Amino acid sequence: MVSRQLQTLYRDLQRAFDARPADLKKCGVLLAQLKIGLIESGLLLPNGEASLNDMVIARDILEIGAFWSIRAKDVPSFDRYFSQLHTFYTDYRSSLPPSKREFPLRGLNLIRLLTQNRIADFHTTLESLPLAADEISLNPYIRHPVNLERWLMEGSYSKVWNAREEAPAEEYKFFVDSLMGTISRNEIASCEEVAYDSLPIKDVATLLFFSSQSELLKYAQERGWQVDLSAGLIRFARKNDEQMEIPKQKLIEANLAYARELEQIV
Amino acid sequence: MASTDAKPPKDGEKKNEEKKNEEKILTPTAEIKVNIAFIERAVSELEPRFTHRVLRSLTALRKRTNDKVLRDAIEENYPADSAVKAKLLSWLPPATEAEMDVDSTAYPPSTPPSKPTSDPVPEVEIYLRLLIIHHFHTSKENYAKSIQLSNETVDKMQALNRRSVDPIAAKIWFAVERSYELGGELADARPLFLAAQRTAALRHDDDTQASLINRLLRSYLHYNLYDQADKLVSKTTFPTSASNPQFARYHYFLGRIKAVQLNYTTAHTNLQAAIRRAPPAKTAPGFYQAVHKLFVVVELLMGDIPDRSIFRHPVLEKALAAYFDIVKVVRTGSLSEFQATLTKHAAQFEADKTYTLIVRLRQNVIKTGIRRLSLSYSRISLRDICLKLHLDSEEDAEYIVGKAIRDGVIDGRIIHEKGWMECEGRKNGYGPDVSEVYMRRIAYCMDLHNQSVKAMRYPQDAHRKELAAAQGARERERELAKEIEEGDLDEDDGGLGGF
C-alpha cells in the first residue's frame, strides 16, 4: 500500500507539474523524494504483488519524471525513467489501464534514438511497438519520429527543418532542435562537400539553416572550408582523385591464402 | 557427434529407398515397433545415429498415427503389467468395439504377438510420448491435454537425465512449443525454455540446445522482441554440430533480426545460408516461401534487384506475387507507384511481418530514380528531377541529389547557380571494390569446399584397406619401374649390339 506521505508528495508533484509554467526545480526535488518512496514500497520495479492502483500511481510518477527530464534537458535521466517505465508498458500492459502519456513518451524515446544516431535501435524499438503497421501512420506521436527518420534517410532535410512546427507535443521540439543542430547539419555539410565545387556564402547559410553569417563562418572553420569573403564564395576541397590506390598488401595476402587452399585440395 | 544429414549422396539415396520400402510394407504400428527396436539398439550400442534415423521418419509417421495405432504400439511393446504402459494408455481414449473389428480385418497380424517380458528402455517411453503429443496437435479438443502431457514429459526427461534421450528431447521441445502455441500463450513457455537451455548448454547437449535456441528466438520474434532476441544470439553460441533443419531455422531468425537492425549484408548472408540449408522446396514449402519473402526484401534494401527466376519458381510464384510487384516498382523508381503498390498489398506484408521493412524501401526507390536519370541525362535541371521523381519541392531535390552524390549512388555534381545537376558518366568497372567482391566469392567457395570435406563421413578402419592397397600399388609401381629399367637396358643393349 502506498503510504500517506507518498500520496501527498504525489499530489504535490502533480500540482507542480501541471502549473503553467511548471516549477521544474520543485518537481526535481519532489521526484527524488518520490523515487525513494517508491523503492521503499517496492513499486519502482514491481514484482507482481502490488495493487493495480498503486502501480498506476507509480507509473504516473515515472511518466512525469520522464517529461520533467526533457524539460530540464537531461537526456540520460529521461533514458533511466523510460527504461523503468518499460516494465509498466510491456509486462503489465494487459492488467493496467492504458496511459494517455504512453505514446508521447514512446515517440520521444524514438526521437531520442534518432538524435543519438542509433538508427538500428530506432528500428528495433519501432518493431516492438504494440501497434499494427497501419496504426503507426495514424498515431501522431509515433508518426512524427517515423517521418523524421524517413526524411533524414532520403535526404529531405528541409522537411526535417519544417517539422519543428508540427511537433505533436512541446517536449518534441527539444529533440528536433538537437537533431537539426547535430546530425542533419553535419549530414548536409558532408553532402555539400562532395556535390559542389563552390557555393555562395548566402546559399550555404540557407542550405545549412544558419540564421547569421558569423555562425556559418565558425562552422566553416570547424569543417576546414576555404571561405573567400571577397568573392562571397565558399570552396570545398576535392579529395577523391588521388585516393585510388591498389591495396597491395591485401591482394598478396589473398593470393597466398588461395595458394595454401589449393595445395590442400590437390 | 556425426551429423546424419550431411553424408555422401549415395548413402542417402540408399537410405531413402530403404525407407520407402519400409513404408510400403509396414503398418504404422509395425513401423513404430521397428523404430523402437532401433532406439533400443542405439541405447545399447551408444550410437545416436540410429535414434536420428528413427526421428527422421517422424514427420511421415506423424501423419499416419491415430488413437488406435498408438494404443496398439503401446500394448505390443510393453508387458501386460507395466506401470509405464498404464500411464501412457491413460492419455488415450479407451478402445471401442468397432475399432477392434477393424483391427482384425484391415490389419492382418503382421507382427507376431510375442509379448515382451520387461519394459523397454525409457527412451522408448519418451518417443511414444512424443508421438502422442504430435497426435494431440491434430485435434482442437486435445490442445489443453497436450500442454499437460508436454509438461509431464519435460519433467520426466529432466528426471531421467540420460544422454541417450537427448536427440529425442530436442524433438520433444519442438512439440512442447507447438503445444503451447496451439493451446494458449507462446510466451508462457519461455521460462521453461530458458531454464532448459541453460541445462542443455552445461551438458553440451547440442541437439537440445540448437532446438531450444530456435524455440526461444521464434518466441521472441513472434512478439516482436527483437532486442531480447538479439541479446540471446549474442550470449549463446549455436552448436556447430546441429542438424541442417535447425541451422536453417537459426539462419532465418538471424536474418530477420539483422534486417530489422539495418544490417542488410549480414542478413543477406544468413538468409542465403537458410535457403541453402532448407529442405527441398516441395517438402517444406512454408519455410521456403517465408525465407524467400524476406530474402527478396533484403536484397532490394541492399540496392540489388532479385533474380527473376525466383518469381517463376512453382512453389514461390503465388506466394511472392505481391513482392514481385514491389520489385517492379523499385526498378522503375517511381515514388507514387511505390506508394500505391504498398497500400494495395499492405495486408499481406503485415501478415508476413515485412511491412516496416518494405516501407524503408522508399529511399531506395528515390535512389534508383536518380540513378536512372543520371544515366540518361548528362545535364538535368533540379526542377525536372523534382517533376520526374514526384518530389515535393526543388529544395528537397537539391538535398536528395546531394546525398545521392555523397553516398556514391551517382557520380556528378550540382551547379547551384544554374540549378542543374551534371553527371560525369559511369564509373569504370575496375577497382578495389571489384576485387573485393571477387575475393568474397572465392572465400565462399573455399569455405563451402572445406565444410563439405568436414561433413563427409568415413566408415571406420576403411583407411587401412586403402593403405594396404596403396602399399600394393607402390610395390607394383616399383616392380614396373624395375622392369622398365631392365627392359630399357635390354633394349639399349640390343640397340648397341645391333650397332
From TrEMBL, chain A:
The keyword Magnesium does not apply. It comes from the Eukaryota. It holds the Pfam family CSN8_PSD8_EIF3K. Residues 76-253 form the PCI domain. PROSITE patterns: PCI. GO terms for cellular component: cytosol; nucleus; proteasome regulatory particle, lid subcomplex. GO terms for biological process: proteasome-mediated ubiquitin-dependent protein catabolic process. It comes from Pisolithus tinctorius Marx 270. The lineage of its organism: Eukaryota, Fungi, Dikarya, Basidiomycota, Agaricomycotina. Belongs to the proteasome subunit S14 family. PANTHER family: 26S PROTEASOME NON-ATPASE REGULATORY SUBUNIT 8 (PTHR12387:SF0). Keywords: Proteasome. This is PCI domain-containing protein. The keyword Oxidoreductase does not apply.
UniProtKB/TrEMBL annotation, chain B:
Residues 248-428 form the PCI domain. Transmembrane segments: none annotated. It comes from the Eukaryota. Residues 1-24, 467-499 are annotated as: Disordered. Keywords: Proteasome. Gene3D superfamilies: 1.25.40.570. PANTHER family: 26S PROTEASOME NON-ATPASE REGULATORY SUBUNIT 3, 26S PROTEASOME NON-ATPASE REGULATORY SUBUNIT 3/COP9 SIGNALOSOME COMPLEX SUBUNIT 3. Belongs to the proteasome subunit S3 family. This is PCI domain-containing protein. It comes from Pisolithus tinctorius Marx 270. The lineage of its organism: Eukaryota, Fungi, Dikarya, Basidiomycota, Agaricomycotina.
